[in-house]
Amino acid sequence: MSTTESLFKPFKSGPLELKNRIVMAPMTRTYSPGNIPNDLVVDYYRRRAEGGVGLIITEGTCVGHKAATGYPNVPFMSGEKALEGWKKVVDAVHAGGGKIAPQLWHVGGVRKPGVEGDTPGFSPSGMAKPGKVTGHEMTKADIQDVIEAFAQAARDAKEVGFDAVEIHGAHGYLIDQFFWSGTNERSDEYGGDLAARSRFAIELIQSVRAAVGPEFPIILRWSQWKQQDYSARLVETPEALSDFIQPLSDAGVDIFHCSTRRFWEPEFEGSDLNLAGWVRKITGKPAITVGSVGLNSDFLPEPGTQNFKNAEPASLDNLVYRMDNGEFDLVAVGRALIANPDWVNKIKADQSQDLIAYESDMLKQLI
Ligand code: FNR
């Protein structure tokens, strides 16, 4: 039996049925002029679907709020033309045998004035990073506008034919700016302890749930790290994680996408479980792991990192061993899929010797 066989077991969560356990991680590509995904974008995702990916999560796509975007040429999930573009993407992915969810995004304070229009950015306390003022503090009306923009984007995504939606609550963008004490100093009900700082996300998830109905799958991506600060932590213990994650789960999340840089790293002392493993154990909901899958040679583990079955910690053997042990249900792959649109089919056919190593130069075009 090939060690990777379990990656090719089907997965089901409500109406979402996947042919395998491999997910394309969301990756911003800035190739949508006018914020409209064009035919090059259609072909880019088509290649990954034909290459065997079970579930594609698109690059971050901005909800229809005037301050949602922070970078030129990122696609929108609003407006007739952008939605038409996305419909072509969805149809191509379905024709290629895959499923697809958009990642719904609002950058909050990361927005730079002058980029993609003059609307100033805003965030919970006017900051993108602790102490770095980049816009104004959101009013209650701003909060309601953004929540409605996420709900509308999810409604539109469902209408266009997407199979699920992913809410981007990770990496120091708007939702995460509420979560984190470093960027949320509000004194109203949206600030305070972590439970209060989660209120915005909870209301947003509830609103998306109401917009898409009880069955349509909602994925939440979240992370401990923020805006390239890899030491930032929201929760330091399993108990704190439980207090944080359970209300989000109850608000209507079906699948948690736990963003880490190395899937093999234990999240808390005293256990081998990674972040996805803890979230799955606490909530009982399916979890996606991510971080350096297929990038073995570039990322050497820290000394003392757990080493299952004498496999290299970063190896697919270790990944599969962990999945078989119920640590997570799905595996997201980022950079290895930029380098190899057919990464999944090559792994399935045991042709990993033909895989190309990722290089950042590959981002200079849509391959
Ligand atoms: C990313 N990542 C990312 N994450 C996210 O939630 N939304 C996004 O739009 C992006 N954009 C993005 C662009 C590029 C070029 C890269 C390389 C990464 C993070 C990505 O989803 C993933 O978590 C990391 O790349 C780690 O996975 P790999 O690459 O180690 O498999």
TrEMBL record:
GO function term, MF aspect, one: oxidoreductase activity
Pfam families linked: Oxidored_FMN (PF00724)
* Origin: domain of life: Bacteria
Can you give the residue ranges of the NADH:flavin oxidoreductase/NADH oxidase N-terminal domain? 6-294
The record's Gene Ontology cellular component field reads:
cytosol
Matching SUPFAM superfamilies, A to Z? FMN-linked oxidoreductases
List the InterPro entries hit by this protein, alphabetically: Aldolase_TIM, OxRdtase_FMN_N, Oye-like
The name under which this protein is listed is: NADH-dependent flavin oxidoreductase, Oye family protein
Q: From which organism does this entry originate?
A: Oleiphilus messinensis
